[in-house]
Design goal:
Blueprint: H1 14-18, H2 29-40, E1 66-76, H3 87-104, E2 108-118, H4 124-140, E3 144-152, E4 158-168, E5 183-187, H5 192-200, H6 210-216, H7 225-231, E6 234-237, H8 242-253, E7 256-260, H9 268-275, H10 280-289, E8 296-300, E9 310-317, E10 321-326, E11 329-331
Parallel strand pairs: 2-3, 7-10
Antiparallel strand pairs: 1-4, 2-4, 5-8, 5-9, 6-8, 7-9, 10-11
Helix pairs in contact: 3-4, 5-6
């Protein structure tokens, strides 16, 4: 995921953003459990293993013939979203970036665990708004809340979600599996997330609101599950940037990749932006490394007729790493995308 300025750049010293203070007001046990019952118990949707969130652990029942896939991602205010972002948008992005990881594994989501650290600005109304949006998304994607934790923090808001999904036994789609001679494919369009981040930062106009919506509330490509199971040999979700995430496939598979920037599938909004840029190659590269698209990049046979909704953007070759080209010329992609550390 692409980054915002760190809290320390806004006048908070590193010590004050990380130190634990015994003077910081803590939620009482009664308040915490009451809030969990009021805000989060309904989100279990009666799942038996959640025990109405009255216990401190959950049971995940098995499913014959399937493997359990588990993924976990976090968002931090001021890093993955702007300070002051609406609580509901934080909740929805938290859910969706995790379900995107399951989508890349061709897994069917069914449950999750939530941990949140409420910052000072999260009073009762903000917490209720967060829970309402969280519940709406969990219901929309068929996910039950099985448990988690809530705490208060003197720093920025952060949240973490652990998503669980089912995949037929032995069929989880990994980053490893690409073979020379295959094609490199990506779903949907690339670059809207990066442009949406620029809009959210006030650096770009977005009259339709489509770009910033794509950044704030990405859609996990769970609709591609059956297609990926049938055709893809390796896959990753495009969270850190197409170049970086395709590079993860190359590394895990022990192959090389060639990415052709002129083949990038672009939305109408991205094409309008591109038309105003003085250097097309540099502009296309910025879209390919920008991140926050939450599409699926995968490898499959070059002439595979079963890849509707995907664009072929390159090739799997012998070698290592990823080579980025525009009109046959090699470009330096730098780090290739967002780095978390």
């Amino acid at each position: 995921m692409s980054s915002w300025p760190s809290p320390s750049s806004r006048g908070r010293s590193p010590a004050s953003s990380t130190a634990c203070s015994t003077r910081w007001p803590r939620m009482s046990a009664a308040d915490e459990f009451g809030e969990i019952a009021r805000l989060f118990r309904p989100l279990t949707r009666g799942a038996a293993g959640a025990f109405d969130l009255l216990d401190d652990a959950a049971v995940v029942p098995g499913r014959p013939g399937f493997d359990l896939v588990v993924t976990k991602d976090a968002i931090v205010e001021g890093v993955h979203a702007p300070f002051g972002e609406a609580p509901g948008l934080l909740a929805q992005k938290l859910v969706r970036v995790n379900l995107s990881d399951l989508a890349a594994k061709a897994a069917e989501p069914f449950a999750g665990f939530l941990a949140v650290a409420w910052s000072e600005r999260f009073g009762p109304d903000e917490r209720a708004a967060f829970a309402a949006a969280l519940g709406a998304d969990l219901a929309a994607f068929g996910v039950d809340l099985l448990g988690g934790d809530t705490v208060a923090t003197p720093g920025p808001f952060w949240g973490s979600f652990t998503a669980l999904g089912w995949v037929p036994e032995g069929r989880m789609l990994r980053r490893a599996g690409a073979r020379p001679g295959e094609g490199l494919w990506v779903s949907g369009t690339v670059g809207d997330g990066a442009l949406g981040l620029a809009v959210a930062k006030g650096q770009l106009n977005d009259p339709s609101g489509g770009l910033v919506e794509r950044y704030r509330r990405p859609t996990p490509r769970l609709d591609l599950r059956e297609l990926l199971r049938a055709h893809a040999t390796a896959a990753a979700d495009v969270s850190d940037g197409l170049v970086a995430d395709a590079g993860h496939i190359a590394e895990a598979s022990g192959v090389g990749l060639r990415l052709d920037l002129e083949r990038l599938p672009l939305s109408a909004a991205a094409r309008r932006w591109l038309a105003d840029q003085p250097d097309e190659a540099a502009a296309r590269l910025s879209l390919a490394v920008g991140g926050d698209d939450y599409e699926i990049v995968c490898t499959a046979a070059v002439a595979d007729p079963g890849m509707p909704g995907f664009a072929r953007v390159g090739d799997v070759v012998d070698g290592a790493g990823i080579e980025v080209r525009m009109a046959g010329l090699r470009l330096d992609p730098g780090s290739g995308g967002w780095r978390h550390l």
